[in-house]
Prior knowledge:
The structure is a homotetramer. The first copy, chain A, is an alpha+beta fold.
Amino acid sequence: MEVTICDPQFFGLICAANPSINKSTMNITLDQAETAIKAAKEKAKQLNTLMNIAIVDSGTNLVAFAHMDEAWIGSIDISQKKARTARYFNMPTGEIGKLSQPGGPLYNIEHSNGGLISFPGGVLIKNSKGEIIGAIGVSGSTVENDHAVAQAGADAVK
Amino acid sequence: MEVTICDPQFFGLICAANPSINKSTMNITLDQAETAIKAAKEKAKQLNTLMNIAIVDSGTNLVAFAHMDEAWIGSIDISQKKARTARYFNMPTGEIGKLSQPGGPLYNIEHSNGGLISFPGGVLIKNSKGEIIGAIGVSGSTVENDHAVAQAGADAVK
Amino acid sequence: MEVTICDPQFFGLICAANPSINKSTMNITLDQAETAIKAAKEKAKQLNTLMNIAIVDSGTNLVAFAHMDEAWIGSIDISQKKARTARYFNMPTGEIGKLSQPGGPLYNIEHSNGGLISFPGGVLIKNSKGEIIGAIGVSGSTVENDHAVAQAGADAVK
Amino acid sequence: MEVTICDPQFFGLICAANPSINKSTMNITLDQAETAIKAAKEKAKQLNTLMNIAIVDSGTNLVAFAHMDEAWIGSIDISQKKARTARYFNMPTGEIGKLSQPGGPLYNIEHSNGGLISFPGGVLIKNSKGEIIGAIGVSGSTVENDHAVAQAGADAVK
């Protein structure tokens, strides 16, 4: 069994026990990032949505970005924060949000790192070996649509 | 029937189905902004309140501002953030707040864009063609009063 | 003789010896601020310029603001920083700039207070008793024009 | 003769005499932005450089971005600041730098707007009617190369 994300139920334990799952010495290339953006835009159009799409590398630095015409201006920043949040903790952003609720173990973690976004729409990008090479963040519609578009973008990178 | 904002009940769905409702290539003029501020101040006096009133253009840049004597100093920033928040997502600020509660789909979205304000008092401003040309944010009293004053300001612009 | 600003030649000495010249328990009213903006806009039109005009109170809080149509977007922030800089040190912004040059006594003071603007265009506003009640910052043209428009705004307040 | 930017030699004078040159009610589309990035990347390769390329709309919001593989990470931010700086003042970034030197009229203007970049590499983007629709910022090599790549990107948009 390959553990690909830190199970929120065992958050910290599994991650701590398997530091190798955080390994990422490879960075996404611009070609790969543009492939992800192209696939994400296609999915966005298929869902009849207007999205902002951001790709960061394994160091959380911005690699590529696209703001679809008339997409929400406020989502320019959110899409980038989603991509960074996914890579900061090596899990989909929605998993963080489950843990950051009032009474939860990571309550208000959003205050860190210049502001996290912890609802769905941020997804890791891996290469064909399963190594983390970056992340994609999508914002502009429902969180379900945001996540679906982000996943489509991530899946397009091999 | 013309849908002018994204109904929170169907958040994303209506927006997705009507991408044209996000269209905004025009900017509010200073004359229009000052008309909005004048109307907002009159409404504020009528409600016996002391308000801060901010107007931003469709790019969220500040166009005009007024701080009524002895109004809350902390609301200078809030009124500007409300105006920006309304334009960032093309809906009244209070609609965002309904979605950003604990357990809600946009929990802690307020951490984005240098800080959002997601309670009522921010309203879009449209021209006679229904195009978004900017937004108004009002802060200084109850959120009900803040919203009423913002709406009065927005309604004064044709 | 009434010392109205801290002579840069004796910067610190006169200010230190006459703390009373910094006294300002009075705040500009919105009416006064709007009078200053109206006069500044008239002067700006007379000079055929497009200005951003900001008024702060004696606590450096924003009281009123106007962005003339198509004026530089980058000057929205600069006009506010000029107004604050003038009040921070109770002198026209250009005086700070003389002291903040390489080798000068206040070299790179612009790094303080979230960013100062130390070239002309920021001027104190006083009431009829000579008490500081706020400041005006203007940005959008040459520094000479910026200063002239700011002075016209300040002079309109009695 | 149509004056398209504010000649630094007559800084303010020409701008004041031609307020219409600042007009910009249109925003660049994503298609146009991607055309600019493609042309900029080609020019960058031709010059044997590794660039970061950012496109903002007329409201200075990010529309598209590309980080060429192994380009300077520090230039991710600089390219975006160059694009914003060009639009903030409607002139190439290098013109600002001529005026912001020690002893110059705009000394330390870089402290405004969350940080400006005032050396070459930021250029306005206009449509076929000469209207400002956004700006491009490029960073990763010498300022001469940065400017050449930015210009190539801007020229590709009709």
